[in-house]
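User: Can you help me understand a structure? I only have the sequence.
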Amino acid sequence: MKRALVIFGLVLLSAGLFAQESDDISPQRKQAIDSLALEKVRDLSKYVSIIGNKDTPWSEAQRVIERAVELFMPGSEMGVSSLSRPEVHYYKIREYFDRLMQLNYDRVVIEWYKIQYVSDLERQPDGTYVGVITIFQSFKGYDNEMGLVYKDTTKKDITIYVKRKETQIGGRLIGFWDVLLGDIRVKETSK
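Assistant: Let's start by predicting it. Here is the structure, written out as tokens:
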């Protein structure tokens, strides 16, 4: 009987801890996390422009690729679409950036706009929060002789992961929330 009470007490305690964990993200903290997520997406937007720019030196592009890859969860993929084919191709993030550098245009201009949350953060069983940010991407490819040779606009959904992490500072463990980007899915591509 005593053992059953101890087990029941532990179950109640753990249930209380899980309930506390689910409330870990206060409205103020959520606002800070949302800002961090949007900032990381804007950083990625800048990195895509730098990597895709044919005037960027190879060594600088490689440095920027390293920074961009750090924004993502391992195994994340980027969707690539084209007006000339109906299917969307998905590439691992590093492969996507390598391919972006090698596009067969003399000049590439990539701009992201209308960056906005479309889903609120939802808690997953493992304690991670997941949300989606939608962006619109304008892509223009130029040839030195013919000028603009390709142009499209793509709507993409970026999965956002918010995870609780710890780091040691001055011998103390400090907990913090970190935001990582996940798969970037193509929703539609138009002229």
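Now, to help you interpret it: Confidence is low (pLDDT under 50) at residues 1-23. Strands lie at 77-82, 85-92, 107-123, 129-143, 147-169, 172-190. Let me know which part you'd like to focus on.
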